[in-house]
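Please, structure for the following, as tokens.
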Amino acid sequence: MQSYTIGQAARLLGVSPDTARRWADAGRVATHRDESGRRVIDGRDLAAFSIEIGQAGQGDEDVSYTSARNSFPGIVTAVRLGDVAAQVEIQAGPHRLVSLLTREAVEELGLEVGMRATARVKSTSVFIDRA
């Protein structure tokens, strides 16, 4: 089974290594020592924990009424406006998402660099690469 160091787990969870270490110290996610003496997290434990923290972040104030289940809350890092179309970039943890939409939609939403926004993804084709 694949295991992850605290640093690797932090990158996958989109948090700092200090945060991941505090979670491990508090017993929120199980760790053990590998043959080198490093603290590691089993892949299955990390997957279950990532689901847990993802669901914990969905309080009543974050209720959304949408069929799109892949939500990436983040910060707008770029807005490029054309005559008709626009390109918006959002950094959501370790994920950079780029969306092409109409200029009118960007203006109606008031999207600007530095503001919080959520990218929602719904796709009929999702490709997965093994790392």
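The first strand starts at residue 3 and ends at 5. The chain has four helices and seven strands.
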